[in-house]
Amino acid sequence: MVSLMKIFPRWRRTFLLLTCLLLGVALVASLAAASASAQTGGISTEVVTGGWVQAASVTANGSHIVIGARDNIVRVVDAAGQPLWEFTAANSILGVDTTSDGAWTVVASEDRNVYLLDAGGAAQWQYRAGQAMNGSQYPAYGSIVAATSDDRSFYVLDGSGNLVWREVLGIDVRAVAIYGTGERARVVTGSDDGYVTIYNRDGGTLLTSRLDYDVQSLAVTANGRWIVAGTSDGLVSLVDGSNGRVVWGYKAGGEVTSVAMTADAKTILAGSRDKKAYLLDGDGKLLQTFPMQSEVLATAISGDGAVLVIGSANNRAVLIDRHAAEASHTQAQARGRLINSILLASLIVIIAAAVVYLHRTPTGRRVWRQGTVRPRGLLRSMWRERIAYLMIFPTLALLLTFNYYPAFSGLFHAFTEWSPGVRTEWVGFANFKFLLTDRFFLSSFRNTVILVIVAILKTLTMPLLVAELIFAIRHNKARYWLRTLFIVPLILPLVVEILLWNNMYDPTIGLFNQTLIALGRADWTRAWYGDERLALGSIIFIGFPWVSAFALLVFYGGLISISEEIFDASKVDGASGFRRFLHIDLPMLIGQIKLLLILNFINAVQTFELIYLTTGGGPGSATYTPALELYYQAMRMHKMGVASAIGMVLFVIIMAGTIVNMRFMRSSIEYEA
Amino acid sequence: MDTAVAPTAGSARHAREDSRYRWRSAASQGLIYAILILLLALTFAPLIYLVILSLKDNGQIYGRFWALPNPVRWANFATALQVIVRPMINSIITTVSSTAGTLLFASMAGYAFARRRFPGKELIYTAILALLMIPPILTLIPAYVLIYNFNMQNTYWALILPWMSGGQVFALLLCRSFFATLPEEFFDAARIDGASEFASFIRIAMPLSIPILVTVAVVRLVTTYNQFMWPLVVISSPSRQVVAVALTQFTSEIGITDIGPQMAAYILASVPLIVIFSLGMKQYVQGITAGGLKA
Fold first, then answer.
1. Does residue B66 fall inside a structural domain?
2. Does residue B145 fall inside a structural domain?
3. Are residues B41 and B86 in the same domain?
4. HSE-up of A216 (CA within 13 Å, CB side)?
């Protein structure tokens, strides 16, 4: 029987080798990525303004692009970025919208006015409100104008600039959109209380929908079927205009300042304060990200989705021709394939190097000599044993695909900004730097230390106590039954155990609060998961009295295997009870203790379910764990690179912990062997 | 002390010592029983609570919290079954097929590693064992991206293939050491009869190794059935979701807010594990102790 204890020397070499491998892969991959990312082509045009670009709009065919900036100027340019005309207001421009043919443009300015401009840029009329106008919309084919104002209300004007109605909301509102024409025109607004409301032309409310955070921006299709809303929590949500239900949400890295949508709702462009614009498809799937130099404040998209406009706080609007962008996307994919093949090639090289390295070690040389004498002989003996290679092939193929490749991919992508299928950019240690400023990640470390210590204490106390007590029972049948009964809780799936305890912690009908009420201590009842000081303690308490069936089995098995003679000898020496436990049982169980130490350490560092299913990390960041933050970063923020970096940190911690554990317990290993 | 442990018959003093020893030992045995039974009661309390809740309706739970179920709501189980029968089937399909794959491939490889001598054998074996150092959390996201690139998300394959692969190392460890213990004579006899290597694997090694294969199977079935994070990441469609994740999405996706059926579903979700453990508890214990100590 091969035991780990016996292959120890080989293991130490494996660690060394593994470290070398990691370094090698990282090095090669970094070179590959660096050389690959150097050749990013220019596919966009830039329009430079005198201030932040705060508003943008584009005609249906993308021929006219309207850009409103903080320098009080509305610039209209063609698809190539050549200026067509300009309009200057008395203050910063906060909203622009143009009809689908570009015949009319409506402008909202901080000078408190809404202007309607004709195709040549001449103001037809202006309407003055009490305070700065911060957003405006004009339907695709004219007839009404809607504008929001800093006076916490919004105005609906007819085609000649007369007020039709005004709605005073009493809360900040800056997102507005219009669909339909004439009498059937509808106004959609989004306000800071998270409400998205659809009004008819006369101000009657047709539908409201509630999002969780302040609505910063809105866009709607011409038929009103789909509404896309950007909120301050960084979510881009698609709302079904017929029933107000949220169909999907996409999480950007920061407040979503602007959203735009094509006529068919199949393509959505959202700009966020995380300095990125996100191109999404109709199902909320990320097509592409556009990183900008500074916060994205305005986005627009042409009716067919071919032209994208991204305005940002570095006084620039970027015009992107998506057909060209797609070409570059394919290029990026090719680059990704190149990186992957380099990765694979380096893997092969490294394995080959490892073979050579092992060949130079005494054991390796012995294996080499046993197998063959010369390379030709080697080939011959390999051919003779082809059946053996065939038999290990499926296992090897599976492990290489689903274990080895992901492991190396994870270590490599920890150093990249990774949007799978879109782009992979080498960013060095930026992800790790980000983690150092991420309060959730930092708080998760404190929790991990606590969870590791508690897990180890739990396993080394109660199961060992129970194992010793069962072992001390004289009656054979009773011993058997007690052992079996203690293992019975294994029949509950892990998830069920957590969910069951969730129910017991329930503030209203939970067992704990009900018991306290029954005992007359209603004042002691708590929202156990809701209190920052109690949440982690409550989670740790789950599973009380913590007689882990697994640990119990391991300890009990260990006790059984101690030979009867040793106990007899100890009896003769007068050692009984606690002294026997201390001087005989504990040293004999050191292998089991070591095993449980390692396993519990590894599991506790990766704690996920226990938190995800109970508090979800809250309240605040009180119960975050690194694995939970990894999950959120990857699945909710789509930051695969950051998630990989967390994975790498945990890997290093686990590896270090395991090595320390093995070193620390070295003496006992020889004792057992 | 010496006299207590080694009483000699005949002397009155010794007899007295002996009876005192017996009394003390009976007392300590009683104490042991008392502690163990108390701990058992505490361990089982949540389970009993689960069963009681599963037989109540919301009115009984909110209105008469401490009362036993009256009337007993067996219908809760019918409701729960309707909701989780699909996830249960998904779980069983993926768990069983990934375990079967693990057994097949790992026993094949284990046989080659145990009974054949081929260049690079120990090197490859060490490289496989080195995977024990890779925590699942490191591979989670890249493996998810891999599945995504293969366009396998929301399919059974997204669960079966990685689980099949994930069980290989543990299974290989057990299989290799087991095959190594089989006497060479069996195989020599087969070789003389002209059996191919593959035939002797199927005809001789496999039947002899049923105990170890059952052990591996039981451990793998239990482990994969309990998996939560991986299905959560790669499966988003409710029609393909496994039971562990489906249970947590009970209220939100399926629309049941009744606690009784919820608890009933928890119990039903445990049934496959009850079946596995009632048939293979012994193998499970062997598996985790052997696998644990070797790994």
1. no
2. yes
3. no
4. 26
CA-nearest residue to B50 within chain A is: A500
**H-helix or E-strand containing B289?**
helix B259-294
> What backbone torsions phi and psi does residue A214 show, to the nearest 5 degrees?
-55, 130
ipTM score of the complex? 0.88
Contacts of A366 (CB under 8 A, 6+ apart): none
Q: Where are the alpha helices (H) located in A311-385, listed in sequence order?
A: 322-360, 362-371, 375-384
> Are B22 and B97 members of one domain?
no
Residue B70 lies in a domain: no
Are B213 and B141 part of one and the same domain?
yes
Q: How many CB atoms lie within 10 A of CB B204?
A: 17
Q: Which residues of B touch A407 (CB under 8 A)?
A: 131, 134, 138-139, 142
**Residues of A with CB below 8 A from B42's CB?**
544-545
Q: Do residue B228 and residue A385 have CB atoms under 8 angstroms apart?
A: no
The Cβ-side half-sphere exposure at A35, using a 13 Å CA radius, reads 8
User: Which tens digits make up the pLDDT trace of A399-415?
Assistant: 999 999 999 999 999 99
Beta carbon pairs, A and B, within 8 Å: 298
Cβ-based neighbours of B164, under 8 Å, separated by 6 or more: A398, B97, B98, B101, B102, B105
Q: What is the mean pLDDT of chain B?
A: 84
Q: Tell whether B193 and B113 lie within a shared domain.
A: yes
Domain annotation for chain A: domains and CATH numbers: 17-37+331-428 (no CATH), 50-314 (2.130.10.10), 435-672 (1.10.3720.10)
Residue of A381, A420, A484 with shortest CB distance to B145: A420
- The answer to whether B36 contacts A466, with C-beta atoms less than 8 Å apart, is yes
Strands of the sheet containing A246-251, edge to edge, are: A215-220, A226-231, A235-240, A246-251
Tell me the per-residue pLDDT of A615-670, one tens digit each, with 9 for 90 and over. Answer: 888 788 889 999 999 998 888 778 899 999 999 999 999 999 888 877 766 544 33
Nearest-CA neighbor of A426 among A412, A436, A438, A408? Answer: A412
Of all residues in chain B, the one with the smallest CA distance to A575 is B1
Question: For residues A247 and A226, what is the distance between their CA atoms, to the nearest angstrom?
Answer: 10
| Contact assignment for A399 to B131 by CB distance below 8 Å | yes
Residue-level pLDDT at A1: 34
Pair A206, A171: CB distance under 8 Å: no
How far apart are the CA of B12 and the nearest CA of chain A, in angstroms?
22
What residues have CB less than 8 Å from B284, skipping those under 6 apart?
A: A490, B215, B218, B219, B222, B276, B277
Q: Which of A394, A420, A647 sits opposite B148 (nearest CB)?
A: A420
User: Residue B20: which domain range?
Assistant: 2-54
Backbone angles phi, psi at A108, to 5 degrees: -110, 130
Considering the domain architecture, whether residues B181 and B260 belong to the same structural domain is answered as: yes
**B202 plus B237 within the same structural domain:** yes
When CB atoms are compared, the residue of B36, B130, B140 closest to A647 is B140
What is the C-alpha R_g of chain B? 27
Cβ distance of B149 and A420 shorter than 8 Å: yes
Residue type, A123: A
The length of chain A, given as a count of residues: 673
**Chain A residues whose beta carbon lies within 8 Å of the beta carbon of residue B148:** 420-421
Kindly give the confidence (pLDDT) of every residue in chain B, 295 residues in length, as a single tens digit, with 9 standing for 90 and above: 343 444 444 445 555 556 666 667 788 889 999 999 999 999 999 999 999 999 998 888 888 888 888 888 898 899 888 888 999 999 999 999 999 999 999 999 999 998 888 888 888 888 888 888 889 999 999 999 999 888 888 899 999 999 999 999 989 988 988 888 888 887 888 778 877 778 888 888 888 888 889 999 999 999 999 999 999 999 988 888 999 999 887 654 444 568 888 899 999 999 999 999 888 888 887 777 665 554 4
Count how many domains chain B has. 2
Tell me whether residues B226 and A495 touch, CB distance under 8 A.
yes
- Name the minimum distance, in Å, from the CA of A620 to any CA of chain B: 22
